[in-house]
Design goal:
Shape: globular
Distance between the termini: 8 Å
Oligomer: single chain
Bound molecules: phosphoric acid mono(formamide)ester
Strand order of the largest sheet: 8-9-7-6-10-11
Number of helices: 11
CATH topology of the largest domain: Rossmann fold
Structural class: alpha/beta
Helix content: 25-40%
Length: 336
């Protein structure tokens, strides 16, 4: 698939690993901890590229990357575009709204068309969980899941891990609390896999209707109990969950999900689960405050917390470019 003459070159990463052979990045559950660390180390090299006066390398010159988005996005779409351009790739952006999808073209026909146009990498966001997995079965392009339904958002989790690692170093044993609507959050799910692979202590906290069915509060699940998830701790009380946390990650409250009979009202949610200064004081001093965005001002985070020195929300966005460069570089330049 790779054109050696015009395809990816590999001079930008100091420590090249021979171990990356994957054509797809669909979620972090399929990656080993070594592969996750390779991605994060490669992102570090990409950060150096981005700090140069001319932040570009020709590593993917001659490669076409297509961003195909069936859902709105600001951060993910823009950072994939910037990442591809920084690597010298050609980039095409397609949104479902402005494509032949509106005329009834199926997902697979759209993908076949993109492949026939010569694209080598497909970055896909879709409202349907599993869509990138289906596509990966029917194309020779490298496929990156840029968020599918409630299921997974692996590049968001990678940039979250990268941001944590830059501040904390090794993540083994670090207490990371994820707060909010866990049930509907692809960001939470991918983070659970990634954080667990790197040995972090993951605590999930939210109102019971926003925890997956059958998860009992205040106890660990997964791992040895045979549930197909890494071992995580569940808490419904925020104060208790935050005790000693080194990272506090608030999730976006998806207003469209707040309609079930058991769902809390917005006012109730803010009262019980908003991260404000008092609650944050239970975490370790200097604990990182994170959010995948877009933030609902004054809902998940008190404004003073969102804009505090502890907040790394803007840094997460910035790091998304280097992380997505690493993803594109490794997928497009993999050994056949
Ligand atoms: N975090 C995230 O996926 O944001 P966008 O929807 O703006 O891409």
């Amino acid at each position: 698939m790779r054109n050696e003459a015009a395809g990816p070159r590999r001079p930008v990463v100091a420590q090249e690993s021979p171990t990356w052979h994957r054509r797809y990045l669909l979620d972090l559950d399929e990656l080993t901890s070594q592969e996750i660390l390779l991605l994060l180390d490669t992102a570090e090299a990409m950060r150096e590229v981005l700090s140069r006066e001319v932040p570009r390398v020709p590593a993917l010159r001659g490669v076409t990357v297509v961003n195909l988005f069936y859902e709105p996005s600001t951060r993910t779409r823009a950072s994939f575009e910037l990442a591809a351009k920084a690597l010298g790739a050609d980039v095409v952006n397609i949104t479902a709204e402005q494509s032949s999808v509106k005329k009834g073209e199926s997902l697979l026909d759209t993908v076949r068309t993109i492949e026939a146009l010569g694209a080598k990498v497909l970055v896909l966001r879709h409202w349907q969980s599993g869509a990138p997995y289906l596509v990966a079965r029917y194309t020779r392009m490298a496929v990156v899941n840029a968020g599918d339904g409630w299921h997974a958002h692996p590049t968001q989790a990678l940039l979250d891990l990268y941001t944590m690692r830059r501040h904390l170093g090794e993540l083994k044993g670090r207490k990371v609390v994820i707060v909010g609507d866990i049930l509907h959050s692809r960001v939470a799910r991918s983070n659970i896999w990634g954080l667990s692979a790197l040995g972090a202590h993951v605590v999930l906290c939210g109102p019971p209707p926003f925890l997956p069915a059958g998860w009992r509060p205040n106890e660990g699940i997964g791992g040895s109990e045979g549930i197909d998830l890494p071992r995580v701790q569940i808490e419904t009380g925020l104060d208790q969950a935050l005790e000693g946390a080194e990272v506090v990650m608030a999730l976006r409250l998806q207003r469209e999900r707040m309609q079930g009979a058991m769902a809390p009202s917005m006012r109730e949610y803010v009262r019980l689960y908003q991260i404000d200064e008092r609650r944050l004081s239970r975490a370790k001093p200097g604990a990182l405050v994170m959010h995948p965005g877009p933030v609902n001002e004054g809902i998940e985070l008190a404004p003073a917390v969102a804009r505090s020195a502890q907040s790394v929300i803007d840094e997460q966005v910035t790091n998304g470019v280097a992380v997505r460069m690493a993803v594109l570089y490794l997928l497009a330049g993999r050994e056949e």
